[in-house]
Fold these 2 entries.
Entry 1:
Amino acid sequence: MPWRRGLPCGIASDAAGLTEKPDYATGVELAARTVTYQLAETFVISRDSSDESESVVVELRHAGETGFGEGTPIDRYEEDAGAAAEFLNDCGELLGDDPFALDETLAALPAAPHTQAARAALDHALHDLCGKLTGLPVWRLLGLRREGPPTCWTVWLGDPDGMARRAEGAAPRFRRLKLKLGGRDGLDLERVRAVRSVTDVPLQVDVNEYWSVDEAIEALPQLAGVGVEYCEQPLPAGDPGGAQVKAASPIPIYVDEDCHTLADVAACAERAHGINIKLSKSGGIREAVRMAHAARALGLGVMLGCMTESGLGISAGVQIASLCDFVDLDGNLLLLDDPWPGVEFRDGVQLHSDAPGLGVKAREAISDPR
Ligand SMILES: [Mg+2]
């Protein structure tokens, strides 16, 4: 993994006044690599199943501090970790010498498609670095609250009895459950009823694009009848029946696959009551904050989701969770072994550790390839 150093941009960084650490003119050095995590159990949704997850991890060095960030490429959007690491390692010379210049640095990246996870990893590493340089948690740098809503626990798609069994096992630790639906076997409502019969924990469902307009219009009132709070992405992204389903639904519709970046938010208001922001779709914290505010201006609800990723990726979501109505930040809890401890799971809420930056630390030292 070669280290790439940003070329000094010739502008003195006024960030130097924030710490006593010297050497601000040395540029920001970047190295990116892929990592693979084993899941605690096979994770099944409507379109695929997986036993492991791949991410890209960025390490930035500047003025004696090191910032880390993780992004998780999403197959659905034709992204993969190897390409993400390659993209980032090619961007090293664009980083300049001021890690606080996030707008300038992120705008300097090439406009290549399928690079959202890579952008997220860099955005997160810059936030982590800025937090460590100032001695502040990222949520404080952003002027936000430490605590967001409780995270849901995701019950992966299976037969109704199996989902009920897993839901019953998880329910004591969590204050809400998210059920993956879209089995295309006529059993989706039975799945919800089976889970409802074993727990009173609030339920939400995610169909991952696997219902037609007719199926959605038939199923949504029945979901309301068993107390489901909201339904995520019932239709394929871009389905022309979105507005019709929104109008017919007695419970809120949230869109995930329909909503990636700020540019998508306004159109989502026509087909949904809320958006699911994920940092590996948005390209990181900075764009996610813009999306949350745009959604509020349009009267939309805001949910924050995640992928199966380590505590490093989840810690970035934790920083902005307080901007959201609903939070799904269970990705690190789905791993067999989280190599980035630090996010505190307390009474159903994923919390920042209070350490500077993103507040997590690798369990094993990251090798220094220089
Ligand atoms: Mg979803």
Entry 2:
Amino acid sequence: MNTRALLVASCLLAACGGPVRAPAPPLALVAPPVVIDASIQVRVDAWTRLSTATEGTTVESQAPEDVPVLIRQIFDEHLPEGPVDVVFVVDTTGSMGDDIDAVKRDMREILAHLRKRNPDHRVGVVAYRDIFDEYLTRTMLSLTDDDRRIQAAISALTVTGGDDWREHVYAGIHTALGQPWRPRVSQHIILMGDAPPHDDYANDPRTLDAVTARAQTAPLHVHIHTIGIRCDATCEKVLVEEAAAAEARGRVVP
Ligand SMILES: [Ca+2]
């Protein structure tokens, strides 16, 4: 390379004669959109497999206020007339706070809507987190027709923990399937969460295949409807941190 070429190359590298370039942002600031998109897709894929295998439906929220609307939409489009059993299976880790608050605010109207559509209804509530949290799953309410207890169980939901981004979704569904479902009554789970399922715990029998098979084994015929919660700022922060940690370990996320 001649002297002029060297000078040009040096100037290109150093941005000679122009404003000083800011240093390249660290990888963690470049990676998030891809990491977040990939993680959301993992969750959407899992949600879709759960609903497809059980003749349920999958919908996505874009904001917390969407969630009560989507619950009523699932009632209207997927609950038949007549008696129904419905169990809400809810991710109660930290990032779900504003979404659960929106359901709490509208729960009275949600139940009134259900009562009008399906006067013979029972509702249960199961919360799930992850293996290092205060609880893995917790039955907040066994199936009951007492609307006051249903509303109280939803109001009692609190969020915290979660640790890594994935949560033990399949454990939550497994617990819900153990509820005292009425045979020969239309049976439905409404799953609400924003994180993909853990399917990487060694020797854990609560897998996608196991829970969907059990949901469809008589006397159960439980339709799993899923409400995917939008990845919010808390979600994005965790994903960025996990991406940085994975990058440091030299492996790929998710
Ligand atoms: Ca977790």
